[in-house]
Amino acid sequence: MRVKIGFEIHEQLATRTKLFCTSPADYRDAEPNTNVCEICLGLPGAKPMGVNADAVEGVVAIALMLNCEIVQEPVYILRKHYDYPDLPSGYQRTSMPIGRNGELAGVKIWEVHLEEDPGKYDPVTGKVDYNRSGVPLVEIVTAPDITSPEEARAFMRELVKVLHYSGRVRREGGTMRVDVNVSIEDGARVEIKNINSIKGLYRALKFEITRQKNLRRRGRAVKRETRAYIEEQMITRSMRTKETAEDYRYIPDPDLPPLRLTPELVERVRSQLPEAPHQKLQRFMQQYRISKDDAWAITSEPELADAFERVCKEVEPLRAAAFFRHIIKKTLNYHNLSFAESGITVEDIVEVLQAMSSGRLSQQAGELVIREVVQQRRRASELVQQLSRVDERSLERAVEQALAENQKAVQDYLNGRKEAINFLLGQVMRITGGRADAAKALQMLRERLS
After folding, report:
1. Cα(73)–Cα(258) distance, rounded to whole angstroms?
2. Which residues lie across from 112 on neighbouring strands?
3. Of 19, 96, 231, 353, which one's alpha carbon is 20 to 30 angstroms from that of 62?
4. Is residue 127 helix, strand or coil?
């Protein structure tokens, strides 16, 4: 059964103020209902200010990075009417498309909009926090080009990279919300709401596709409806009959003039665009001769990619790429940190790589240094000094000490129990605090025992 999946993705834009007023857009540390004014509270008689120019430019920038055509005709701000406690005015303001006909990772981008966030409603307590109300959003609408949960997950990872690279969205996490439309064999389209992570998206699709296929196998019709994703149970649950555009009674907002996206504005935004992640990936492969897998891992974050390029001025790129992918990314993933949050500096990485290249640090010690930089916020230069391999004379002394202190293991080895040398090697590593070159220590032990 052929599956068709499309997205409506909403992400908060990183602006200082809200979309139609001067209330702060960053509400992370604010008490409930304190980042508000009469406009974002929708009080009677309150009229919106002009549209936040930074938000408009942010949406244009994202649309361009998604290879969209920027709309030249006037873009009206519409009122989308629906009745819900998080919407104090009874309608949500959303723009007509600002970008159209884009593409990312083989998926067509139908439209890119500017929209205001509603408040946050807790159905358990019945309380509403309007701090979020009016925060600017970018809305990205895709074609139903995706055919599996695996493809959906891969596309969302690429989209998140593009949004982060744009520098126009919030990076603190928990601000993205995804609505998924899914149908099977051109059957009824079901919308799933309340998805706020890529992992949740994958699980919701796995459940919903299985649910719809089971209904079809039993000869039952799939209803056109809106369902909620229940994260704790990893299921979807029916909310209501699916709305149509007519249900929302869209009208142009009479309090706001249309936006005019002049060629001058578009070109100014285009000239300031950073290199997109998919473009950077291809450039890294060509310029540094690294594999696609290495380039994909390194370009996962703009800060990580920038650090790699700076490190490559001091260290051979293939060696650096392997270290970034297998050591740094492994450490970041284990601690659930971004590179920017980790405390790792370019100087730390160069210090470790040069110490490994010269033989002062083993691969394992190099990884330990990076872990300690992240966990203890210590500098690599200090750690490298502590963990550097012992010199040859000190290693000889450690070998002699291990042999002298463990005569039974020596005799076992001489009697034919060759595995006893592993115990003696462990003793050398203990004596040297793990700083010995294991291969060299093993060679010395065999020479002494022979």
Report:
1. 9
2. 99, 140
3. 231
4. strand
Distance CA 234, CA 7 (A): 19
Contact 209, 3 (CB under 8 A): yes
Q: How many whole angstroms separate alpha carbon 289 and alpha carbon 295? A: 10
pLDDT given at position 246: 62
pTM for the whole structure: 0.83
The residues, any chain, with a CB within 8 Å of residue 253's CB and separated by 6 or more, are 48, 76, 77, 78, 79, 93
pLDDT in tens, 275-326: 999 999 999 999 999 999 999 999 999 999 999 999 999 999 999 999 999 9
Which stretches does DSSP call E strand in 164-223? 177-184, 190-195
DSSP-assigned states of every residue in 308-369:
HHHHTTTS-HHHHHHHIIIIIHHHHHHHT--HHHH---HHHHHHHHHHHHTTSS-HHHHHHH
What is the pLDDT, as a whole number, of residue 113? Answer: 98
Pair of tokens at residue 311 = 């490190």
Residue 297's identity, in one-letter code, is: A
- Distance of alpha carbon 348 from alpha carbon 384, whole angstroms: 10
Place of tokens 């065999």: 446
Closest by alpha carbon to 297, among 264, 271, 320? Answer: 320
Separation between Cα atoms, residue 275 and residue 286, nearest integer Å: 15
* Per-residue exposure over 258-270, b if at least 16 CB sit within 10 Å of its own CB, e if not: ebebeeebbeebe
Q: Walk me through the domains of the chain, giving residue ranges and CATH numbers.
A: 3-270 (no CATH), 275-387 (no CATH), 392-449 (1.10.10.410)
What is the rounded CA–CA span in Å between residue 393 and residue 443? 14
Q: Are 332 and 341 in contact (CB under 8 A)?
A: no
Q: Please identify every stretch of the chain with a pLDDT value under 70, giving residue numbers as ranges.
A: 242-247, 389-390
- What pLDDT sits at residue 416? 87
Distance CA 300, CA 339 (A): 10
pLDDT recorded at residue 434: 73
Label the pairing between strands 3-12 and 177-184.
antiparallel
Buried/exposed code over 85-107 (b: 16+ C-beta within 10 A; e: otherwise): ebbbbebbbbbbbbbeebebbeb
pLDDT at position 75 is 97
**pLDDT, tens digit (0-9, with 9 covering 90-100), for 94-114:** 999 999 999 999 999 999 999
User: Around Cβ 139, how many Cβ atoms within 10 Å?
Assistant: 20
Sequence letter at residue 66: L
Q: What is the pLDDT of residue 242?
A: 61
Select from 302, 310, 410, 399 the least CA-distant residue to 350: 310
Do residues 50 and 253 touch, judged by C-beta distance below 8 A?
Answer: no
